[in-house]
Design goal:
Elements: H1 11-20, H2 26-35, H3 50-58, E1 78-81, E2 96-100, H4 101-106, E3 114-117, H5 126-138, E4 144-149, H6 151-164, E5 167-172, H7 175-181, E6 186-189, E7 199-202, E8 207-210, H8 220-237, H9 240-251, H10 259-275, H11 290-302, H12 309-326, H13 336-343, H14 348-355, H15 362-372, E9 383-385, E10 388-389, E11 395-396, E12 401-403, H16 405-418
Parallel strand pairs: 1-8, 2-3, 2-4, 4-5, 5-8
Antiparallel strand pairs: 6-7, 9-12, 10-11
The structure holds nicotinamide-adenine-dinucleotide and zinc ion.
Length: about 425
């Protein structure tokens, strides 16, 4: 199919496009771009038109149309850490407030006209973005939003805010969101059948306010999931002390959570983002462990038994480290004993149940490959994956490296056998 043969939008698609403020035909352009596996940046060789420009802006978070140079964001996001939930009151007046439903139930926030969202990956969708915009219009289109929740709520609501140009304050309520998802300006939704976080944009928060008190109600499984992103940040920074601290938190979550640990970990990401806001180079390193993680999450989602993002990242981190070792990039895995202890938190049976298959079947491998093919680091026919690299420091190398199919599969088998 070529661009000019694209089908017209169905009535349902037209309805969705209208609610999102997108030109008619944008969804067809997006579907075609995914089907052709177009790269993230570059020339689409597409006819000019509003639908193409809109699609290009959100496809894999921004192909930059070549007639338009994307301006550098004013990186003025403030980061604060406050001790008590009552310190957040200032962010709850005269705003459109989107809040995770569980959080709203567990913590009585004094916030009128709150819109709540059930945080599931299925709700991280264009339909939910449209619904948030509908309710925003109903509430008189306030120009400022406060978004309270974990990574799902922040991702989907910040995308909606970006579409209408609203200013945002982010209040992360999960460990993962405090150290990762709330920072860096990225947002997005899933776009089945093309996988996780495939549509989105950059929209910088005015302020991110962390309050560790939220973590008192966060279930242990969610704390563990978030802890894996802490492990990732420590590996990226090549900071073995921090790595050990996060591995200890995984094994036994501290109470209360040390502010300094949250702050130091968040700063690793914000410093990288400041240097490379649009992920043209160094920022790619933040995807360490995520090529496999996103594929696992997508297969599990298709199977109707979603995997927690952080849990998938934990497995992805082991995979990237084993690949790095198999390819001779590292001789030894940092903090191996402590890492191996934490491997007990991941399990073959949980993974097999989520993926709906034995871990070593050809059918499962083909499904994983389907999603590997959507990976934004893919170039040509080869998958490019981030590896740990010991040449200078024992830290993740931001330049993805080509890995052959044979090695990818062999190391996947090795990994599944290592899981308890
Ligand atoms: N934009 C980014 O840069 C970025 C980075 C990392 C991850 N993510 C995304 O974040 C998502 C995962 O987010 P997550 O792990 O933060 O959690 P989540 O939003 O999936 O929430 C997990 C669960 O915890 C509940 N919850 C949230 N806060 C709570 C609290 N204080 N007490 C009790 N329950 C609470 C939620 O209702 C939900 O059931 C994934 O979709 C991932 O792709 C985005
Ligand atoms: Zn992640």
């Amino acid at each position: 199919m070529r661009w000019h043969d694209l089908p017209r939008s169905s009535a349902t698609e037209r309805g969705l496009e209208q609610q999102l403020g997108w030109a008619e035909g944008t969804l067809a352009v997006l579907q075609h771009a995914f089907a052709c596996q177009l790269p993230r940046y570059g020339d689409w060789h597409a006819p000019v038109g509003t639908a193409f420009v809109t699609a290009a802006r959100y496809y894999k978070r921004g192909v930059v149309p070549h007639d338009k140079v994307q301006p550098l964001p004013a990186l003025r996001t403030r980061l604060s850490i406050v001790a008590q939930l009552s310190d957040l009151q200032a962010y709850l007046t005269n705003r459109y407030i989107v809040c995770d439903q569980q959080v709203a139930q567990l913590h009585a926030l004094a916030a009128p006209a709150q819109v709540t969202l059930v945080a599931t990956e299925a709700h991280k969708s264009l339909a939910m973005v449209a619904e948030l915009l509908r309710q925003w219009r109903e509430q008189g289109s306030p120009p400022q939003w406060t978004i309270i929740g974990g990574g799902i709520t922040l991702d989907v609501a910040a995308f909606a805010a970006a579409l209408c140009g609203a200013k945002i304050v982010l209040i992360p309520t999960t460990l993962l969101a405090m150290i990762d998802a709330a920072h860096g300006g990225k947002n997005g939704v899933n776009f089945p059948p093309w996988g996780k976080n495939q549509l989105g944009t950059y929209h910088w928060a005015e302020h991110v306010v962390i309050c560790p008190a939220w973590l008192q109600t966060l279930p242990p499984t969610e704390l563990q999931a978030g802890g894996w992103e802490g492990v990732k940040h420590a590996l990226i920074a090549g900071d073995e002390e921090l790595l050990l601290a996060w591995l200890q938190c995984l094994a036994r979550p501290p109470r209360p959570w040390p502010r300094a640990l949250l702050q130091k970990t968040a700063y690793i990401k914000t410093a990288i983002v400041q240097r490379d806001p649009y992920e043209r180079g160094e920022r790619q390193v933040l995807n360490f462990g995520h090529t496999l993680a996103h594929a696992l999450e997508a297969v599990a989602q298709d199977n109707g038994s979603p995997l927690r993002h952080g849990y998938a990242v934990g497995i992805g981190i082991f995979y990237a480290l084993l690949l790095s070792q198999a390819l001779g990039k590292i001789q030894k895995i940092p903090q191996l004993a402590a890492l191996s202890n934490c491997r007990a938190l991941l399990s073959q049976s949980t993974l097999a149940r989520a993926l709906g298959d034995d871990l070593n079947t050809d059918t499962l491998w083909k499904k994983l490959q389907h999603y590997f093919a959507q990976d934004k680091k893919r170039r040509g026919n080869k998958l490019w994956i981030l590896l740990h690299d010991v040449e200078a420091l024992p830290r993740a190398n931001p330049e993805p490296q080509a890995v052959s199919e044979i090695v990818l599969r062999k190391v996947w088998q090795q990994l599944t056998q290592l899981l308890p």
